[in-house]
Design goal:
With 550 residues, this protein is an alpha/beta fold. The chain is built from 18 helices and 20 strands. Helix content is 38%, strand content 20%. Helix 10 links the parallel strand 10 and strand 11.
C-alpha cells in the first residue's frame, strides 16, 4: 500500500490552505485518494499555519503525525514539526528564510526575479515538491493552470524554477485509479443543498461555516439561487423564515456563537412550523473559545435549543459523501415535515478536504412536500393524522396565509384557550412519530470496519474517518449514528447486535454522544475523549484504542 503525508507550513497570508489543496489535486491526478487537515490560529496575518495532505491508495479521512515531505516557508515550520520527520523525510525549504538540513530553494529571490507577488512563494515550493516527488512537469502544469488561473504565466515560471532547483527524492508513483474530485466538507454541504432544490442561502460569516457562504455565492448565478449576507445572525434567521414563508427552500449557516443569537428565531420556526435547514459548524467553546479549531461540544445545545417543545431533525455527517447526501436529505425532510433541520458538523469536516467518490452517495434530488390542494378556505394549521398541515405560500389569490408565533388555532389566529393550546402542542409533537419512521427508512446508522466484531467504536461526525481506519487495522466494528434527532433507536440497536464492548470516541470533554445513547438504554463501556481543539491523528487514536481494549 502506498501512503504519503505532505506537510506545508508558513504564515497566515502565504496561501497555505490553497497550497495544500493544490498539492492534493496534483496527487489526485496520480490516482490517489486525498484527505487534508488545515490548522491555523485566529489571526488575519502572522501566526503559524500548516496543512497536512495525506495521499493514499485507499480511502482516508484522517491525517498521520509522521510525514514524508516537509515543505517549509519559514523557520517556525521546521522547528515546530521536526518531531514528525523520520530519516527518510524529504525536507524542502525557503533558503532565504530557513536554516535546515534538506533541499533549500532561494524562493524569495526567484519570486522577485520573475516579478511575482509575495503570495507566490507557495507556488515555487509546490513546484519543488513536484520534482522531489517525481511528478512529471506536464502534470504540474495542468493542475496549476486549473487551480491558479490568476497571473498563471508568472506562477508557472516561478513553479518551474522551483521544480528545476531540486532533485527527485521520494517518488510518488502513479496509480491506475481515477482522479476523484476534491471537495471541502463545506462544498459538499453546499452541493447537497443545491441537489435538494435550495432557493436561498442566508448567512453571516463565521468560522467554520463561512466556506458554504463563499461557495454558494460563487455558484448563485449558475443555479439561480439567492445568497444573502445580512448584518447579523438575528437578521439571518428572521430573513430565512421570511423566505420560507414565501415558499423558498432556504438554509442558513453559522457556528455556536452565531446560533446563540438565532435560538429565539428557531423557537419561532418551531411554533410557526416554517421549514428551515440550519448548518451548524462546531468549534471550541464556550464563548469565542478557539474559533479556528475543532470540537463536538454543541450536540446537547442543538438538541435542546429554543424555549418550549417542538420536533427537529439533527443530522451529523462525517465525510464529504455523507455531507452531500445528508444535507440534501435535511432540506427535504425539513420541508416535508415543516420542522427545523440541523446539519451538525465540526471544523474538521467543514474545512477538511476530501476525495469525493461520486458513486457512493445515494441519489436524493428534490422531494415533494405536502401541498394545499385548493380547498377553500385555507387553514395554515389544519389538523391531520401526522400533524403536518398542507403547505401554501404567499401570494395566494383569495386566501389568507397566516403564521403566528403565539399559540393559535387552525387558521393561525392567536388563542390562549386551554383546549386549543393543548391541541396545538399535541399536533406539533405528533410529527415526531412519522419523522422517526422516515428516518428509520434511510439507513440512519452507518457501520464500518468488521461488522461482526464484538468490540465496537462508537463515533459521530468527522471521527468516522480515523475510527474506520483503526477498526480495519484491529478488526473492530464502527457504529456511527448519522441522525441524532429523532434518534433512530431501532437502527441503532440493530447496529449494536452482538457487541459486548462499546468504546465511544468523541472530541469533547463530557462524552455528549455517550450521554445521548445512554438515555435510550445503551451502555457505553469506555470513552476516548479529546478536547484540545485538535482532531485525532491516526497514531493518537491507535495508541488510545490499544490501551482501552488490551
Amino acid at each position: 500500500m502506498n501512503d504519503y503525508s505532505i506537510l506545508i507550513g508558513g504564515k497566515a497570508g502565504e496561501g497555505i490552505n490553497k497550497a495544500g489543496s493544490v498539492i492534493a489535486r496534483i496527487l489526485s491526478h496520480r490516482g490517489y485518494f486525498q484527505y487534508m487537515y488545515y490548522d491555523y490560529p485566529s489571526l488575519i496575518r502572522g501566526g503559524h499555519n500548516f496543512a497536512i495532505v495525506r495521499s493514499s491508495t485507499h480511502r482516508v479521512g484522517t491525517h498521520r503525525n509522521a510525514i514524508d515531505f516537509l515543505l517549509a516557508l519559514d523557520q517556525n515550520t521546521v522547528d515546530t514539526h521536526r518531531w514528525r520527520c523520520g530519516e527518510e523525510t524529504a525536507v524542502l525549504f525557503n533558503a532565504s528564510k530557513v536554516e535546515a538540513e534538506g533541499m533549500g530553494i532561494p524562493i524569495d529571490d526567484i519570486v522577485e526575479e520573475e516579478g511575482g507577488s509575495s503570495v507566490m512563494v507557495n507556488t515555487c515550493l509546490i513546484g519543488a515538491f513536484g520534482r522531489a516527488a517525481g511528478i512529471p512537469w506536464n502534470t504540474m502544469e495542468e493542475v496549476l493552470t486549473l487551480e491558479i488561473p490568476k497571473k498563471i504565466e508568472t506562477n508557472l515560471r516561478i513553479a518551474r524554477r522551483g521544480y528545476d532547483a531540486v532533485e527527485e527524492r521520494t517518488p510518488i508513483p502513479p496509480q491506475e485509479g481515477p482522479a476523484h474530485p476534491i471537495l471541502s466538507g463545506n462544498e459538499a454541504i453546499g452541493l447537497g443543498l443545491l441537489d435538494a432544490g435550495l432557493d436561498a442561502y442566508v448567512a453571516y460569516p463565521m468560522t467554520p461555516s463561512s466556506g458554504i457562504l463563499h461557495f454558494l455565492a460563487e455558484a448563485a448565478e449558475d443555479f439561480a439561487i439567492k445568497v444573502i449576507h445580512p448584518e447579523n445572525e438575528i437578521a439571518v434567521m428572521l430573513m430565512a423564515l421570511g423566505c420560507a414563508y414565501a415558499g423558498a427552500r432556504t438554509a442558513v449557516g453559522t457556528s455556536g456563537g452565531g446560533f446563540c443569537l438565532m435560538s429565539e428565531g428557531l423557537s419561532m420556526a418551531g411554533m410557526t412550523e416554517e421549514p428551515i435547514a440550519i448548518v451548524m459548524g462546531q468549534r471550541g467553546g464556550p464563548s469565542t473559545g478557539t474559533p479556528t479549531y475543532t470540537a463536538q461540544g454543541d450536540l446537547h445545545f442543538i438538541l435542546n435549543a429554543g424555549q418550549g417543545e417542538f420536533p427537529r431533525f439533527v443530522i451529523s455527517p462525517g465525510n464529504a459523501e455523507q455531507a452531500y447526501e445528508w444535507s440534501a436529505r435535511a432540506l427535504n425532510l425539513s420541508w416535508k415535515y415543516q420542522a427545523p433541520s440541523f446539519i451538525l458538523v465540526d471544523k474538521t469536516l467543514a474545512e477538511g478536504i476530501y476525495s469525493f467518490d461520486r458513486d457512493i452517495p445515494a441519489p436524493v434530488g428534490r422531494e415533494k412536500e405536502p401541498r394545499w390542494e385548493g380547498e377553500s378556505p385555507y387553514h395554515r394549521y389544519a389538523d391531520t393524522e401526522t400533524g403536518v398541515s398542507p403547505l401554501a405560500a404567499v401570494p395566494l389569490a383569495g386566501e389568507v396565509i397566516k403564521v403566528n408565533s403565539y399559540h393559535h388555532d387552525e387558521h393561525g389566529t392567536t388563542t390562549e384557550d386551554a383546549e386549543l393550546v393543548a391541541w396545538l402542542n399535541e399536533k406539533r409533537m405528533r410529527k415526531e412519530e412519522s419523522m422517526l419512521e422516515a428516518i428509520e427508512g434511510l439507513s440512519p446508522v452507518a457501520i464500518a470496519g468488521d461488522g461482526s466484531a464484538e468490540t465496537a467504536l462508537l463515533c459521530w461526525g468527522s471521527n468516522i474517518g480515523v475510527c474506520t481506519e483503526i477498526a480495519e487495522e484491529a478488526g473492530l466494528r464502527v457504529i456511527q449514528p448519522l441522525v441524532l434527532s429523532p434518534f433512530p433507536v431501532q437502527a441503532f440497536n440493530e447496529a449494536l447486535e452482538n457487541v459486548t464492548t462499546l468504546v465511544a470516541v468523541e472530541t469533547n470533554l463530557t462524552g455528549q454522544l455517550t450521554r445521548l445513547v445512554e438515555g435510550f438504554g445503551c451502555c457505553v463501556d469506555d470513552a476516548i475523549l479529546r478536547y484540545d481543539g485538535r482532531p485525532f491523528s491516526l497514531e493518537d487514536l491507535r495508541e488510545e484504542v490499544e490501551e482501552v481494549i488490551e
